[in-house]
Amino acid sequence: KEFLELCIRKVGKVTGMLHRLEAGAIVGIRGPFGTHFPMQEMVGSNVLLIAGGLGIVPLRSTIYWANDHRTDYKDITIFYGARDPGQILFDYQFEEWRKIYDLKMLTIVEHPDESWGEHVGLITDLFNEVPIDPDNTFAVVCGPPVMFKFVCTHLSEMGVPRQRMFVSLERRMHCGMGKCCRCNVGSTFTCLDGSVFDYWTVMNLKEAI
């Protein structure tokens, strides 16, 4: 495709300004910066994609990658959780994603409304719905940092090695170029060394999450 598609939530001055722009406006973009989810490393294995809230945004491109290279992977499973149905993003594409060969997608919310007809509870509850092979599964987790601890602890208890769990710490990033020193954890810079890390590395970075 000859265009970039961005998902930006209006939360402050900069994002508010972007929301006020009209078609034809010129916007400067730097990047991409840092690392990416190591999809080549997962070839031949099952892939579990776990997103919470806005975490579905960076995983969306990963879903497209998996679809374009479907024969490279075994089972692909998506867990997507949000606080309520109004926080669910890209629901208009869920049926398209579910049509991908051997892809399972489960959604869950903590506070359902009358229209909600899927799972209710915490995202870790979805582990009871789909069997996970810990010896041949890679997990990609993206969402609120507090979710990492619960999800990755659950995966670890199931036997998935922490080196095969990948999380994104992009929420810590600021300048993206290693200049402002606001994203560093000790000598590790989220923007230069990450923002994607395996969970074993994250556990050994004090106060990373």
From TrEMBL:
It comes from marine sediment metagenome. Residues 170-202 form the Dihydroorotate dehydrogenase electron transfer subunit iron-sulphur cluster binding domain. InterPro entries: Dihydroorotate_DH_Fe-S-bd (IPR019480), FNR_nucleotide-bd (IPR039261), OxRdtase_FAD/NAD-bd (IPR001433), PyrK_electron_transfer (IPR050353), Riboflavin_synthase-like_b-brl (IPR017938). GO terms for molecular function: oxidoreductase activity. Residues 49-152 form the Oxidoreductase FAD/NAD(P)-binding domain. This is FAD-binding FR-type domain-containing protein. SUPFAM superfamilies: Ferredoxin reductase-like, C-terminal NADP-linked domain, Riboflavin synthase domain-like.
